[in-house]
Amino acid sequence: TKSQNTTSVGEKLDMRTIASRIKDGQITRIVVLLGAGISTAAGIPDFRSPNTGLYDKLAPLHLPYPEAVFHISYFAHTPEPFYAIARARHPGNLQPTASHAFLALLAQKKVLHFIFTQNIDGLEQDAGVPADKILWAHGNWKSQHCWKCKTEYPDDLMQKAIRDGAVPYCQMPECGGAVKPDVVFFGQSLPLEFDEKEKLVPEADLMLVMGTSLKVAPCSRLPRLVQEGIPRVLINMEKSGDFGSRNEDVCILGSCDEGVRKLAHELGWSEDLDALWRSA
Ligand code: CNA
């Protein structure tokens, strides 16, 4: 026997079946994991896409390895490369994409359990997802502190530093540490809530993973915490992580915006999605 929302071995799922389970109320607790790919259409390059991703554009900075630009131990003595690229990455005046609007729609339809986002642009909330449904696993750009003495640094001075591409330094007497946005760098701990929120993943009756290469731990392990028999949907340009290894996996390959539009169409939610996106 199988429960309403599990799949017996050998039964392949598809987008239409997933959509019908959401429509008829079998799926009500969707847990989402997001990565940079849902924001590339908003104009923020991701890290790892060939040619367009940030890591392919770092050669002039002569870094020992690409991730050094976001590594805390490198930043501590050489913060200049980070500020050389910060302007291109700072999410000012950006509009949420259709993918972000789709997440707000899931919340509106009361089927969103929780979102883990690796993105630091805050576009999920801008699109209308309630903040208590989101964990910014890698922090955000909304505030900044001296990396050394942890004193907060004013927003207006930070904006200027980013515009000028110049490193802002702590104003505390005798400190002089470089100021760092409250984004989690490699070598830093994730927010304390991560461990607690991680427990929500096994409660999912569907996991939706969008726009991530699943190469950065610990977020990369979240899809593996989904209970066996529960469907997992990947919307991404390419297959990532262990997607495809379970019978209940559905991979919708292509752009995130195209993928959510197809899913919204199957759900009969296309007009709702457009209305929400226009109002975001
Ligand atoms: P990544 O490693 O660069 O992977 C991005 C993934 O998205 C790749 O698999 C791409 O093929 C895919 N992709 C790119 N564009 C699209 C698109 N339009 N539609 C569908 N798929 C697409 O980025 P991850 O998020 O996996 O890596 C984690 C890092 C990246 C986190 O630490 C983030 O903070 C960091 N990051 C965040 C942002 C942001 O906040 N918008 C931007 C760039 C990087």
Summed up:
The chain is α/β, with parallel strands linked by helices and 280 residues long. The protein is 28% helix and 15% strand. It folds into 2 domains: 161 residues, Rossmann fold; 79 residues, SIR2/SIRT2 'Small Domain' (2-Layer Sandwich), CATH 3.30.1600.10.
- Structural class of the helices, strands and pairings? alpha/beta
Q: C-alpha Rg, in Å?
A: 20 Å
Termini Cα gap = 44 Å
Count of domains: 2
Helix content: 25-40%
CATH topology of the largest domain: Rossmann fold
In CATH terms, what is the architecture of the largest domain?
3-Layer(aba) Sandwich
State the order of secondary-structure elements, H for helix, E for strand. Answer: HEHHHEHEEHEHEEEHH
Strand order of the largest sheet: 3-2-1-6-7-8
| Strand residues, percent | 15-25%
Shape: elongated
Low-confidence blocks of residues: 6-10
Overall average residue pLDDT: 92
Task: Name the CATH superfamily assignment of the largest domain.
Answer: TPP-binding domain
Instruction: Outline the biggest β-sheet.
Output: 6 strands, parallel
Catalytic activity: N(6)-acetyl-L-lysyl-[protein] + NAD(+) + H2O = 2''-O-acetyl-ADP-D-ribose + nicotinamide + L-lysyl-[protein]
Active site: 138 (proton acceptor)
GO molecular function, one term: zinc ion binding
Keywords: Metal-binding, NAD, Transferase, Zinc
Describe this structure in words.
With 280 residues, the protein is an alpha/beta fold. The chain has helices at 15-23, 72-77, 80-89, 98-108, 123-126, 155-164, 193-198, 256-267, 270-279, and strands spanning 30-34, 112-117, 134-136, 139-146, 179-183, 206-210, 232-236, 249-253. The strands form 2 sheets. The chain has a 6-stranded parallel β-sheet with strand order 3-2-1-6-7-8. A two-stranded antiparallel sheet has the order 4-5. The longest helix has 12 residues, at 256-267. Residues 6-10 have low confidence and may be disordered. The structure holds carba-nicotinamide-adenine-dinucleotide. Carba-nicotinamide-adenine-dinucleotide binds next to loops. The site of carba-nicotinamide-adenine-dinucleotide has 28 residues, from loops.
